[in-house]
Design goal:
46% of the residues lie in helices and 26% in strands. By secondary structure, it is an alpha+beta fold. The protein folds into two domains: 2-47; 52-152, 2-Layer Sandwich (Alpha-Beta Plaits). Strands 3-4-5 form a three-stranded mixed beta sheet, covered by helices on one side. Helix 4 packs across helix 5. It starts with a helix and ends with a helix.
Amino acid sequence: MRLTAAAFDCDFSPFPYLGLPADPGVRAWLLAGAIAVIGVLVWRVARHGDEAFWLAGPHGGVLIPAAPLLKLAEGAAARHPEVVRAEASLRVTGAGLGGTIRVYGRPLADPGRLASEVEPMVRSRLRHVTGAEPAALLVRPRVLRVHELKRYLP
């Protein structure tokens, strides 16, 4: 503020009106604290931005938001009649898009059959949308017990 006042050739300083201590050392510590708080806020905003995947292609690549892809994978897995709920975790590896699909199946469902039927459904849907074959897609089925079912129903 003093630099602005000097640029306009006036003698105004807001520090006496703000009630801040006149000691330059205290002011320096207050300003350093303010800079640290602003730095933390900027870091939190940048860190918690929307996650996106960069899918490289032969002539460049495309940046795809992660949230729609996660919902797409979960929706494709949830279309199976034995699936109660699905949770997806995707990542970009060196070979392409991959990840884990956690599938919660109805009681008495066969977990091996459930995994083998859900994996091609999700793989096909991701291939259709991204245009690239998913590299490593792991389906982890969990067959629910009857008393657990109410927690996982939509």
